[in-house]
């Protein structure tokens, strides 16, 4: 086996942290030089099976991982688990695509997955190269007999898959990350794509599911038997980004164990939340601005895939079986169905969700006031509730659902900003960034999505009186700041 060649291209280096470590294949090469035997093992000559890790960073309920393990074992080949990091680089709006909180959380989530895999004699390799670059490089040196991966939904994810297929890589896509597979939905499916004929808004989607009485599939168990990892050391370059300072006001301190990224913390949190008295009152508390018990806080783990939504749904079933159904448990399911709806909307509409007028081609295109957008990002709009929210987001990577709506509405309606710029800012900042939920919610509020009322304009004074009557939240985040 020849030593690994230098990478064809290196991912762009943006700032410090992960961007500065865009050198996996460089490190692979160095590793191969240090361990010349490592990448010449019989397994590698005969071939290998790959699990391409995407937004499914877990061992439980993971069809792609299970298929990769089964195929590797059946063929007697090693399994390589490889995770290209999320795309980084400057956005068209003038800021980096990965903000410091998300960057660190993405990294920690992979570290946690590596820890889980090591319990089974496996390890995780990662790269800041694109999937096509990284897997192409691998395939140039090793016989990659199969690549198993979670099926992508967003246009960028689909383009990544197309680039692998164009290189002749044997890609197997697995539906995962949602509650339902396409075939289990109660809607007709397009013969060419297999995609469902989705109702035009959320309520008929939910009602059709309720009428059909269809339930999400049961979560799959972890793989029972594991193939060997490729012989020798996996290249694990030291890419760790700096840990952002923990703001003592954070309501989701992701550097502390209960909120830490990864599957183990996700499952512990799921259990703890459902064992708490928070579930029955969820519908009444969910709009709170900063109380960590007010809503489930499952989204950061759902976003990386450390938690499967089917596992969360099944845990709710078990909770109800033991403690009874409640308004709160019903409503958590409704919210999980919102997530599901936006997944299918992205699958069906794809790139249209990124057009200036989204799903409303005849509508007036949004304007954009760049200076006002900048003030919005920095929390200097002079609108106290919005400024407080935007400061919390920048300082902690978290924002309650209510404030996500309020701040989005203010950007669009008070500040004349483009909804796509707002969506890009949330993408960079949110710990729980998820392409479907983010783009779908932004389009909805902007009136370019599936809101039957044509978009939302929140009355800021009313929102402040209703959700921050004493001004505590505004004081917490605005004190000491000039607008
Ligand atoms: C403009 C805007 C952008 C958003 N961007 C994201 C995003 O990038 N990632 C993300 O996960 N959520 C996003 N949301 C949805 C929602 O704000 C978060 O899912 C929720 O605040 C997460 O907190 P939680 O886990 O405590 O939610 P809960 O209130 O406990 O809800 C339980 C789960 O249901 C799902 N859910 C709840 N509300 C929504 C919703 N409106 N749309 C889709 N799914 C929902 C989430 O998976 C959530 O974890 C966005 C909402 C808005 C208005």
In short:
The chain contains 19 helices and five strands.
Q: Explain this structure to me?
A:
By secondary structure, this protein is mostly helical. It has 3 domains: 19-176, 3-Layer(aba) Sandwich (Rossmann fold), CATH 3.40.50; 179-216 and 262-351, Serine Threonine Protein Phosphatase 5, Tetratricopeptide repeat (Alpha Horseshoe); 370-478, DNA Cyclobutane Dipyrimidine Photolyase, subunit A, domain 3. It is built from 19 helices and 5 strands. The chain has a 5-stranded parallel beta sheet, sandwiched between helices. The model is unreliable at 1-40 (pLDDT under 50). Bound molecules: flavin-adenine dinucleotide. Flavin-adenine dinucleotide binds at residues 286, 295-299, 302-303, 332, 335-336, 338-339, 342, 401, 404-405, 408, 426, 430, 432-434, 437-438, 441-442, 445. Keywords: Chromophore, FAD, Flavoprotein. May have a photoreceptor function. Residues 218-230, 238-247 have a biased composition (Pro residues). It comes from Roseateles flavus. Its cofactor is (6R)-5,10-methylene-5,6,7,8-tetrahydrofolate; FAD.
